[in-house]
Amino acid sequence: MPIYFFNIHYGEAHPDNHGEELPDDKAAWHEATLVAGEVFKDLDGKFEPGRHWELEVTNEQQKSIFVISVSGEKKQEAGRWYTPPRSKGAPNRCRGLGRKRLLSPSVF
């Protein structure tokens, strides 16, 4: 069975020196999504705007097969606050959320 390596890049490279035997690329993609979810969850709120996180799957020849990447950006004009129309007697906020909704400009 082929061996796949799951290399993480977050500020610096964290290569997978052991790899994992998997039947094919489809199984490697499935494993990559599981690994990415677990590792990204372990960042525990420390991922900040301006940072980039990446999981690269390579084969035994170190050829890149898949990449899952996440970038954090702070957008000054990414959206604008939208206040839903008031119905009689309803407060001016989203029910249950207690805050206004942020919608992208493409919605308008």
Low-confidence stretches: 90-108
What is the H/E string?
EEEHEEEE
Cα-atom Rg, whole angstroms?
21 Å
Shape, per Cα inertia axes: elongated
Question: Roughly how many Å apart are the termini?
Answer: 52 Å
How many domains comprise the coordinates? 2
Oligomer: single chain
| Helix content estimate | 10-25%
Overall mean pLDDT:
76
What share of residues are in beta strands? 25-35%
Based on secondary structure, the structural category is alpha+beta
Tally of strands: 7
Query: Counting H and I runs of at least 4 residues, what is the number of helices?
Result: 1
Q: Give a quick account of the main beta sheet: strands, pairing sense, barrel closure.
A: 5 strands, antiparallel
Compact description:
The protein has 108 residues and is an alpha+beta fold. It is 17% helix and 31% strand. Strands 1, 2, 3, 4 and 5 form a five-stranded antiparallel β-sheet that branches.
Q: How would you describe what is shown here?
A:
The chain has 108 residues and is an alpha+beta fold. The chain folds into two domains: 3-71, no CATH class; 77-108, no CATH class. 17% of the residues lie in helices and 31% in strands. The protein is built from one helix and seven strands; from the N terminus they run βββαββββ. The chain has one helix spanning 25-42, and strands spanning 3-10, 12-14, 20-21, 52-58, 64-71, 80-82, 101-103. Strands 1, 2, 3, 4 and 5 form a five-stranded antiparallel sheet that branches. The protein has a two-stranded antiparallel sheet with strand order 6-7. The longest helix is centred in the first third of the chain and has 18 residues, at 25-42.
